Amino acid sequence: VAGQTKALQATARALAMIDALCSLAEAAVRCRFVRPELHVGDEIEIVDGRHPMIEAFNDEPFIPNDLFMNNSTDRFLIITGPNMGGKSSFLRQTALIHILAQVGSFVPAKSARLPILDRVWTRVGASDDVARGRSTFMVEMTETAQILHNATPRSLVLLDEIGRGTATFDGLSIAWAVAEFLHDSPEHAAKTLFATHYHELTELAERLPGAQNYQITATEREGEVIFLHRLERGRASKSYGIEVARLAGLPPAVLARAREVLERLERYELDVFEDEIKPVGAMPEHPIDDASQKSSWETWASGDGGLGLAARRAARRRVAAQVTLFDSVNQGLLDEVRNLDVDNLSPDEAHAILLNMRSRII
Fold first, then answer.
1. What CA–CA distance (Å, rounded) separates 193 from 87?
2. Is the model's pTM score more than 0.85?
3. 3-class secondary-structure state, position 7
4. Alpha helices of the chain — where are they, by DSSP H?
5. 348 and 265: one domain?
6. How many CB atoms lie within 10 A of CB 93?
7. Number of domains in the chain
8. Residues 159 and 269 in one domain
9. pLDDT tens profile 28-65
10. Residue 85 maps to which CATH number?
């Protein structure tokens, strides 16, 4: 036997190849795959693409989706939509279709016309690296850095919720900068699917010529959220996070309190807990008048700082949540700022007030 080692290894490799090819062929027949058309251009045209694993193991009918991309007008797709809507699944099915095509397999779609890629880069999922002492966010940033350094115009990049592992403003800022880099950099301008819950990022479609907004659709019927799992042009207006929490079994009291806080934040209220704090689960009998709180933030947001209207509105909500939701020190300072008679302050008085505020913060 030892004398036939090379022949046995060659036979094993040949049998493994035959086994793999037969598996691909059987999957193509059983799961209605089609032969993709590969070309040297830049267009991606997938009609009724599917995720083969979800389709095989899900009792409900799988909802297929189309995908059309190129290197000019539809190179960077910003995908928003509700939790559990199917954003991550759509990214994964797109990766699987391209990988299967490039290894010579048929693909799960009605038709597919695909470019030859040099890489499929993915940043999907959330997990830490305990063995190497890296947090979930550090893993996310390390993988994102690899993509930004190595992606090319012939790559496909799939990014799922970049920036979610850190503070809201930090995460949004990083996601915004990553999106602009992948769109604008001549060396790294890959075709990109960018799934996010930062609805502010949809403003990029109005600023970047190659960016487009898409949404995974959902609807509400008799108080219930119905996930349609369809990819359509446009931007999502809600993430339905509380509804998903309800489906997961969170206690009704927690859900009621979450809806109360959400309602106040969406009305741009600065001081969520200014009035009497209700017991968990008790909704307020009458909504409080938020006119005074809103006015200061309308003034603050009158200049867009490079952001559009939707981004400014969301930023006001995020400021309320991140800066002042639980911070009594900041609240006291903000009250003082509101009450300042700035038109009648001398420079020395203004300087003294700022020094006092700084000492209280630091």
1. 10
2. no
3. helix
4. 5-30, 52-57, 87-102, 136-150, 168-184, 241-248, 252-266, 291-300, 309-319, 328-339, 347-361
5. no
6. 26
7. 4
8. no
9. 999 999 999 999 999 999 999 999 999 988 888 999 99
10. 3.40.50.300
